[in-house]
Design a protein that fits this description.
Elements lengths: L1 H10 L2 H20 L15 H9 L5 H20 L7 H11 L12 H12 L9 H20 L3 H5 L6 E2 L4 E5 L5 E5 L2 H13 L1 H5 L27 H16 L1 H4 L4 H15 L4 H8 L4 H8 L4 H10 L3
Antiparallel strand pairs: 1-2, 2-3
Helix pairs in contact: 2-3, 2-4, 3-5, 4-5, 6-7, 6-11, 7-9, 7-13, 13-14, 14-15
């Protein structure tokens, strides 16, 4: 199990690796409950029926979480076969997952649109926010650029954090990124996002110049905490989430900070594209980089202004 999780860490994102680790820990617990001690039993003792045991033990979780955990366990059996550590019956493993696992129904994305717009408006004013030090001012400029970028590009938090200066073409207003599934993609930037990023980088120029590295290799969004010192290091997704939480809290209060995450801005982006394009699903799919248009269609229910107007006309007081 440890070797399998190591292989997942090398090939998948940090979030996926954490999810798979939790799934395998739960699977190990299920095996122990059925008299198979994962610390002592030989791998040959592991049978396909254990997938059914595990599925039965996940019914208190949401269907989506259950499905994700079963996918991680199926990957473990595939790993055993590929590494010739055992000879599991993989078709039976897949059959058990289809039979025992619940399929999550479609869910509409939930996000507080008005609260996000208020947060973006607050972020736009951060450049004029009073600060005691130059570092605080630089941090404000970074946070403004980061939040506007999330809202206007649809970037996922790890994609934004991984942006290097060479990735963003200010003349063309777009960046080339490595996105979900290790796929290369083009992301468009709005003029206000470009202005915010440019002002932040210009203010950071002395720090960048003293880094001793080529400017093109430096991150767009850098750390500005005590641990970073004078080094120019890229932000982590954890820092990105903290920035959103802090600025939402400043804008709307403590309770709102728990309702908005960096991914909320991606939901906001998709619905904004649909509203502005009259419901053009293909455009929204391409700009959001959804592989399946059915994912984009979930947002159409949230952005149908014609339905909204029709309803309120009928039920107007």
């Amino acid at each position: 199990m440890a070797r399998y999780l190591d292989s997942v860490s090398l090939a998948r994102s940090e979030n996926t690796a954490v999810t798979y680790r939790k799934a395998l820990e739960a699977f190990a617990g299920t095996l122990a409950d059925h008299g198979l001690d994962p610390d002592k039993a030989a791998i040959g003792e592991l049978q396909e029926d254990s997938v059914g045991w595990f599925a039965a033990a996940q019914k208190d979780l949401s269907p989506a979480t259950e499905r994700l955990r079963l996918t991680a366990v199926a990957g473990f059996f595939e790993y055993l076969a590929a590494e010739k550590l055992a000879e599991p019956n993989l078709p039976r493993v897949r059959l058990l997952i289809r039979q025992r696992g619940r399929r999550p129904g479609p869910r509409l994305p939930q996000f507080p649109r008005e609260a996000i717009e208020q947060t973006v408006e607050f972020a736009e004013q951060l450049s004029a926010y009073p600060t005691e030090t130059d570092e605080d001012h630089l941090r404000n400029l970074r946070d403004r650029a980061f939040i506007i970028t999330l809202a206007d590009t649809g970037l996922r938090v790890h994609e934004a954090c991984n942006l290097a200066r060479r990735d963003l073409d200010f003349n063309e207003g777009r960046a080339i990124i490595i996105g979900k599934g290790n796929r290369q993609a083009v992301v468009r930037f709005s003029q206000r996002a470009l202005r915010a990023v440019r002002e932040y980088l210009n203010t950071r120029s002395q720090l960048d110049g003293a880094s001793g590295k080529q400017l093109s290799t430096l991150p767009i969004f850098a750390r500005h905490d005590r641990g970073s010192g004078k080094k120019v290091q890229k932000m982590t997704p954890s820092t990105g989430r903290n920035i959103v939480s802090q600025r939402v809290r400043q804008t709307l209060g403590d309770d709102a900070a728990r309702t908005i995450t960096p991914h909320s801005f991606r939901h906001y982006f998709v619905t904004t594209v649909l509203r502005g394009s009259g419901g053009n699903l293909k455009l929204a799919q391409e700009l959001a980089r959804h592989r399946n248009i059915q994912v984009t269609q979930r947002y159409a229910h949230l952005s149908d202004d014609e339905l909204d107007r029709g309803y309120h006309e009928i039920f107007a007081e």
